[in-house]
Amino acid sequence: MNKKGKTLLAGFVVLFLLFLVPKVISYFGYSKATGTVVNLVESTFRGGRRSTKFQYPVIHYLKADSSVGYYTKDNEVLYYVPSVGDKIIVLYNPDDDSDAYLNRFGSFWFSLPSLLIFGLLVILWIGLVNIIFVKPRKKKV
Prior knowledge:
This protein has 141 residues and is α+β, with helices and mostly antiparallel strands. The chain is built from three helices and five strands; from the N terminus they run αβββββαα.
């Protein structure tokens, strides 16, 4: 592997760790509660000429301090839409009610904002490595 390849690989590893370590730390700071799906809200995404309908759950859960928490995220892609009455484990931040996730791999570890930020960092890293390692061509006279 050449120097450019090693630098790219090292950068990907560092970016992945920068993405993963805060998630692992925050995972252990979250509390778990069993919630119940109380409603499914239908929404429509309009893009170009087509529109796509999807549903997202509204989940009520009982927090450790006996108050009721509400989970609803319309920007989260769910590959399995639960039914009303289903029991689902919710991870929530005790200090911030808006910071809650379904206890599913994709919901917590690969939320849309996290993936967008990680993707942007990867693109910037690839561009930076190419700027550093690609030598300008000499003009022939």
